[in-house]
Amino acid sequence: MTEKSLAYEHGSAVGYHHGSTIGYHHGSAIGYHHARYEPMRRFLRVVMRILVATIVKVDKIEGVENIPASGPLILYSNHIAFIDPILIIHAVPRNIVPLAKVEAYAYPVVGIFPRLWNVISVQRGEVDRRALRACLQVLEAGEILWIAPEGTRRPALLEAKDGMAYLAVQTGAPLLPISVDGTRGLPALPFSRRWKEPGVSLLFGRPFRFKPGLGRDDRAELTKMTAEAMYILADMLPPARRGVFSDLSQATQETIEWLI
Q: Is residue 133 part of a domain?
């Protein structure tokens, strides 16, 4: 599989098309240097810790111990509310690099966060070769990427784009699913009506990788790999959140190798 590019629609997922070359993040060919962003990210994590403790009702965070202590990793999850990636960053002990639509930079107040964190911004509805190259650089540097493979926020799962599988094939990075629930209506002030309802639940699943040699020259294989990864995520979610992946009897794991 050669010369792919990145496509984006309505969210933070990646897809690909034939016939385009890969560009570089922010016009740079020197790669991704995680240490450059660490001081600001450490400061932002302190801010997030305070804010989450104050205005986010968190009921449960489980499975964080499944995250490898080092090395590249693709985190992927369902996406319900804008606060989802912030809570995932807060919960993961390593600093991660999320994808976000470029419009997120324009959000009042919270729009400053993606800029300071240096998230990978993706243009909506067009091929974004720089974003793909940025994703590859993060993984090649041995760091963690977070993707919402559906490319949009929805209460239940939609069909996912194949970009997640493509990145895993190109870099050999393992994947780890995250089940997200209870984030709608947050943040909210304590003692508000929202705080009387169930709070946030984050469940980190087991890491896996795709079997070597798959998906490099076959679009159908990539689609199958993506579907198998999404069924793994669906199995972790409440039935009402599973959407198009509700029928777990259709799930297969022919392309999957579990790491723990």
A: yes
What CATH number should be reported for the domain holding residue 176?
3.40.1130
Residue 212 in any domain: the answer is: yes
Residue 67 domain flag: yes
| 137 within some domain | yes
Beta-carbon contacts of 226 under 8 Å, excluding residues fewer than 6 positions away, are: 149, 160, 161, 162, 164, 165
Indicate the number of domains in the chain: 1
User: Residue 198, SS3?
Assistant: coil
Q: Distance (Å, rounded) from C-alpha 58 to C-alpha 199?
A: 5
Question: How many other CB atoms are there within 10 angstroms of residue 240's CB atom?
Answer: 10
- One digit per residue, pLDDT tens: the chain, 260 residues? 433 434 433 345 555 443 333 333 333 334 788 889 999 999 999 999 999 999 999 999 999 999 999 999 999 999 999 899 999 999 999 999 999 888 887 777 778 899 899 999 988 666 578 899 999 999 999 999 999 999 889 999 999 999 999 999 999 999 999 999 999 999 999 999 999 999 999 999 999 999 999 988 889 999 999 999 999 999 999 999 999 999 999 999 999 999 99
Domain that holds residue 63: 25-258
**CA nearest neighbour of 179 among 70, 65, 62:** 62
Query: What whole-number distance in Å separates Cα of residue 234 and Cα of residue 252?
Result: 12
CA angle, 13 as apex, 52 and 23 as ends, to 5°? 115
pTM of the model: 0.89
